[in-house]
Specification:
The structure holds two protein chains of two kinds. By secondary structure, chain A is α+β, with helices and mostly antiparallel strands. Chain A is built from eight helices and 19 strands. Chain B has two domains: 2-65 and 166-332, Zn peptidases (Aminopeptidase, 3-Layer(aba) Sandwich), CATH 3.40.630.10; 67-151, Elongation Factor Tu (Ef-tu), domain 3 (Beta Barrel). Chain B has helices spanning 2-13, 22-31, 139-142, 168-185, 207-216, 256-268, 285-289, 317-332, and strands at residues 36-39, 45-49, 56-62, 67-73, 78-84, 96-100, 104-109, 131-132, 148-151, 156-157, 162-165, 193-199, 220-228, 246-250, 273-277, 298-305, 313-316. In chain B, helix 1 (2-13) crosses helix 4 (168-185). Classes of the chains: A alpha+beta, B alpha+beta.
Chain lengths: 337, 340
């Protein structure tokens, strides 16, 4: 069920600021299982009833948005100039297929045959890249798209080997899929779930949601970089696919609650430390909300994050669901001091 | 041209490199109603159509595509590859591919994680890149050195009759030749014999056309390929313009009679065309066929194409129509034999 939900979510467009399609899908999945409302920024907030009232009120967060592109200018030749929405490496922009609503396009460039040998070793300046949607001139392009439209890098959904998934937007539809499953299952304790907007542009949605909900504790469900790939030494791999979800002790925006971290690591459920101080997520906003919120982050290890070809493990996804449920109950019961 | 687009898309998605012959199988199948088809060596497909005279015109387009070949299978399911054709290494990170092992294996090129990126990455050696099969140690049971790898990219329609996909270089020309064969088969009689050569190993140095040209010994030949289309960073003098018609090659290495005949026909029949002047060798199969055996007079027609040798090549279907119109008119007028 988790895998089917993730696939459905990964196939939806949801660039930061345009999360409506993802939100509508999630709402249709969970509205029978929780009280739902949408806040002023577009966060979908679900109040789930459990068998008991919690000693510690827990908020779970997963972000609906993904990185993408926004059209900034349409030139006389009908080419679309763009900015990235969130962090995208130039290496995954050059010579790629993109999608803007119903329209396919490509980010092209000078062919290798015409590129000088030295220049061919370096990526082009990202500002020089433009999108070709087939328009012959500005007027034709303006009949199809407008400045301000957002799109995304297109990629296939598939299985690699026995266990791995290839997909775009695993960051953070993985977290959304886990959170949907937690809401659909009977809960021991009441909790609130936030499907947040605008994580990729500064963890903005979760900031206001945490302010509104004023939880005692928070669990951020995320995807994080796994560098367990060829030619990378073990000490630089951060986390490994198949070793369970990654639990953060510290990243660029958060020093995580140590008791939560220890409880997760010692849970007996397959998981691993996120073994690097790198990146950041909604925890950075949530743990500083109001008077402060004790925060835990559980992330799905994911190779080639922020590319249209993310790779992650289905086994890890299932263990992420199990660990999230375990930590939710442990924290809500007051068992984690 | 709806059928043409369907044919182009099917040819684009099919694999044609090394021993992987799906594109060749498909081309042979769709060509066979119109011409007597023979196959081999490799991907080569030859279609013969009889005419009223002994004069034989050969039309060539290459079936092979660029890709990679596996050189090493690592313990954890990561592969090393060498280039098979002119690759732009900068386009490879996080690129979905298919590894043609004992079964087709979906895979993706590794990309450097942001926390390990040290300044500007230098794309100077394909050995620095790896392919992730996700198979772990089981990879060695499915994949071996020598297996080929191709880009995985479904074709798509852009706006205004423009389309994008992989291997339009040179399946777009293959689709044109098949379309031409269809039209010629509908003619009452052909003034001369026609050989349709869908050749192999162009991307490795015009090799297929070299041997096929020797074997087939036509009286004249036209190579059909793609050439640089207008796009970002490409100067007007380096390229043709998408939508402006068939590019007719003008080069000291090409036969002036054929070239002039093509231009005359295009003008007379109002087929959109644009000249492509080249100082010498054309880097197409015309270079190889013209030197086959005792020599073969050659012409060159090209489809302007953007983003050559990437999975996001772009062409205008109107240009394919111009190419088909011009080739059909050329053959039906008897080629260059009676032109003087």
């Amino acid at each position: 069920m988790l895998n089917e939900t993730l696939r459905a979510l990964c196939e939806l467009p949801g660039v930061s600021g345009s999360e409506q399609t993802v939100r509508d899908y999630i709402l249709s999945e969970i509205s029978d299982y929780a009280d739902c409302h949408v806040d002023p920024l577009g966060n979908l907030i679900a109040q789930k009833k459990g068998k008991q009232r919690p000693k510690v009120r827990v908020m779970l967060d997963a972000h609906m948005d993904e990185v993408g592109l926004i059209i900034t200018f349409i030139d006389e030749d009908g080419r679309l100039h763009f900015s990235s929405v969130g962090g995208i490496e130039t290496a995954v922009l050059f010579q790629r297929r993109v999608r803007f609503g119903r329209h396919s396009g490509v980010i092209g460039g000078k062919p290798i045959h015409l590129t000088e040998k030295e220049a061919a070793k370096k990526l082009p300046d990202p500002d020089s890249l433009t999108i070709d949607i087939g328009a012959r001139n500005k007027a034709e392009a303006e009949g199809l798209v407008s400045v301000g439209d957002v799109g995304y890098l297109d990629g296939p959904f598939d299985t690699l080997g026995d266990d791995l998934l290839l997909a775009r937007a695993i960051d953070d539809r993985a977290g959304c899929a886990v959170l949907i499953e937690l809401i659909k299952q009977p809960a021991e304790y009441d909790f609130c779930a936030v499907f947040s907007v605008q994580e990729e542009v500064g963890a903005r949605g979760a900031r206001v949601a945490a302010f509104s909900l004023k939880p005692d504790a928070a669990i951020i469900l995320e995807a994080t970089t796994a560098a367990d790939i060829a030619d990378i030494p073990a000490e630089q791999q951060v986390c490994r696919l198949g070793d369970g979800p990654a639990v953060s002790f510290m990243d660029r925006s958060t020093l995580y609650d140590r008791a939560f971290y220890d409880a997760a690591i010692k849970s007996g459920i397959p998981c691993q430390p996120k073994a690097a101080v790198a990146g950041g997520n909604n925890a950075g906003s949530v743990h500083l909300a109001g008077e402060g919120v004790r925060t835990l982050a559980i992330s799905l290890p994911c190779r080639y994050l922020h590319s249209p070809s993310c790779v992650a493990s289905r086994k890890d996804l299932e263990n992420m669901r199990i660990l999230a449920r375990y930590m939710l109950d442990a924290i809500a019961s007051g068992a984690v001091e | 041209m709806t059928d043409f687009k369907t044919l182009l898309f099917s040819l684009s998605e099919a694999v044609g490199i090394g021993g992987q012959s799906a594109a060749s199988d498909l081309a042979a199948e769709v060509l066979s109603p119109y011409a007597a088809v023979s196959r081999g060596p490799g991907l080569t497909v030859v279609g013969r159509m009889k005419g009223r005279s002994d004069h034989t015109i050969l039309l060539d387009a290459h079936l092979d595509e660029i890709g990679m070949v596996v050189t090493a299978v690592g313990e954890n399911g990561f592969l090393k590859v060498a280039a098979a054709g002119g690759l732009d290494l900068r386009t490879l990170p996080a690129r979905p591919v298919t590894v043609w092992g004992r079964r087709p294996v979906p895979a993706v090129f590794c990309s450097t994680p942001p926390h390990l990126a040290k300044g500007e990455e230098s794309f100077d050696d394909i050995a620095k890149l790896s392919i992730d099969t996700g198979l772990g140690p089981a990879a060695s049971q499915l994949v071996s050195p020598g297996d080929f790898v191709t880009f995985r990219q479904a074709p798509a329609e852009l706006s205004g009759g423009r389309v994008t996909g992989k291997a339009f270089d040179d399946r777009a020309s293959c689709a044109c030749l098949i379309e031409v064969a269809k039209r010629l088969s509908e003619a009452e009689a052909l003034p001369c014999n026609v050989i349709l050569l869908l050749s192999d190993q162009e991307e490795l140095g015009l090799r297929g056309a070299k041997t096929a040209g020797f074997r087939l010994r036509p009286d004249e030949a036209i190579a059909v390929d793609v050439s640089f289309g207008d796009g970002p960073g490409v100067a007007p003098h380096q390229c043709g313009k998408l939508g402006s018609g068939a590019m007719i090659g003008l080069s000291p290495t090409l036969d002036q009679g054929i070239t002039n005949r093509l231009r005359q026909l295009a003008s007379a029949k109002q087929i959109p065309f644009q000249p492509e002047a080249i100082g010498g060798a054309t880097s197409t199969n015309a270079d190889a066929i013209s030197l086959a055996g005792e020599g073969v007079p050659c012409g060159l027609i090209s489809i302007p194409l953007r983003n050559m040798h990437t999975p996001v090549e772009v062409i205008d279907l109107a240009d394919c129509k111009s190419v088909c119109d011009l080739l059909a008119a050329y053959v039906l007028s008897g080629g260059n034999k009676h032109a003087e």
